[in-house]
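Researcher: Structure for this, please.
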Amino acid sequence: MSEASSSNRIGASARIRQVLRHESLGNLLLRIVAAAGYRTGNWCAGWYVRPLKQLDEPADVGLPLEFDELGPDDAEQYTAFQRHTSPAAFRKRLADGQRCYAARLDGRLISSLWFGTGSVWLDFLGRALTLEPDQVYFFEAHTDPEYRGRRLLPWVRTWANIDVYKQGYRRAVAVVAPENRSSIVMVKRFGYRRTGMLFYINIGPLKKELFWGSRS
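Model: Predicted structure, token format:
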């Protein structure tokens, strides 16, 4: 065995031991199976739903925040705040019907949350998610590192909930890969419950999307 091969095997073993210290063996195997599935175009994901309710204004977080919905003119400022997105990609999202809520402090963006309705593209699945008319999909939350731990995201989420509820939406949807235990814990904490599973089969000429359970 070469020195490089030996080093790679030792490195892989160390990574596996690290995962096992934080997760179960079953979840590790699920990650391996899922990774193999995504590479071949086969995947499954949990469908989670929570009801949207009429909420009161969020609790004060101790900062003079302004709630705002961003538009095309905010592209440069948004991409300075969220550096992995280009101005063109930001504007394309808006043109595709996705929308972005944000918290501003003295005009500066410090927290944001996207949402979509109808048909929303999911990068991690490489497919569009089709929602029912009264459903919304919240995604890609981001808070400036300087202000993390100040409960800004719950503040933005509450205002977002108030706004989409006024627009007639009554259910929020989350789609989470079954091996992503941390995200499952998070969505459950926000009040989502799993109502179904999405499957995509890609075997030779067979390409089929299936849904088991309820979308409601």
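Researcher: Any notable elements?
Model: The chain has two domains: 1-40, 43-213. The longest helix spans residues 3-22.
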